[in-house]
Amino acid sequence: MPTTVAAMIVRGVVQPRSAATASAVLLTRGHYCDRTTAYRAGTAYGRGVFKKRWLADLVVIALFVATVISDEIRSGATRPAVVIVCGVVAVLARHRWPVAALVLAGGGLIVSIVLHAPAQSLLLLLGFLMYAFTLRTSLRRPWLCSLGAATVVFAVGMIADPAQWWSLNSLGLYAWIGGGGAVGEAVRNRRAYLAELTERVRQAEQFSEQQAHRRVMDERLRIARELHDVVAHHIAVINVQAGAAAHVVKQHPEQAGPALEVIRQSSDSVLQEIKSVIGVLRDPAEAGSTEPSPGLSRVPALLDGLVGFDVAFTQIGQPRELPAIADLAAYRIVQEALTNAHRYGDTSATLVITYAENDVTIEVTNRIAGHGDGTGFGLIGMRERAAAAGGSVTAGPAGHEFRVHAGLPAPSYALETSS
Predict the structure, then answer these.
(1) Would you give the distance in Å from CA 58 to the centre of its chain?
(2) What pTM value is reported for the model?
């Protein structure tokens, strides 16, 4: 699908408004192709449009000049020169100023009619410019403009020379100018249809990827539930056997051996189940990693990696080893908060980590540089990590600053009790 969309843009089947739009169509949320493909598609589209535009201008100008020369050759040199200049300027200006180009050509035609010498070449050019105007206008009824332009020209002709203009041949004026507007309207509708088709392709691909991601998450949730059931069963067996071993070890030590063997086998089964399921749930990019989970002890290294971003780091209290889940959650909260501060704030932030007797608190503040356009998933992730560790996170603007405050329970005696 990414290659198909890029190919449609490169071939000109799908025509966005600019090369930047062509790249944006392919790069929306990063789901459709890599940046190289999008850049090539947008650049190829831009070069193609530029070449086609100038080629069309040269063809139209050449035909117009030839028409003027054949029609105005007997009028001397001044009139053909004025008509040619008027027509060439209108042709070149139609891309950026279609209304001005239409008025210029129409005004020249009206002047020639008033002088009792209608310029047929400007009349022909007026139909082409009406096509260009209708193609680029945002009006819902552009045919009214075609009808109005033809009526104005006809009215001026009737005032200047009623005998010549009051005839059935004057209906050709409406047919030519109205026909140019009709063709422009048809081409505009075709482009709008192709743009809608491109958007539908993009949305369909996005929906497909979201569905695939959801199926993967559902499958992982199912596996996690199965792991919970298996682990709960084995832990229950271990608990029962440990209680039995503790009862018999005092009176009949020789009978504690079978109970301890059951405990060993059950614990081994639990470890194998956890290892196999975690192997499925783990990201393939992390499969070969043996690095321990990061904690607050790695915050200085994290700060050193923030190039071009100054962080005023303050540590209050005596650092100590925290429970694993609290230590990991604290590090991830610091990492996400500093990332958001770097992305949506100015070039500095303040980080304060406080070690208390029964908890650890984290506070990150930064000045708000502008309106963020994030999804809010970072704040949700921080709250979920804190909740998993039994803590909480509050985040929001405070004046001209954005403040993130996290509190995680980390009793100093937890490690001694567990050991």
Answers:
(1) 38
(2) 0.41
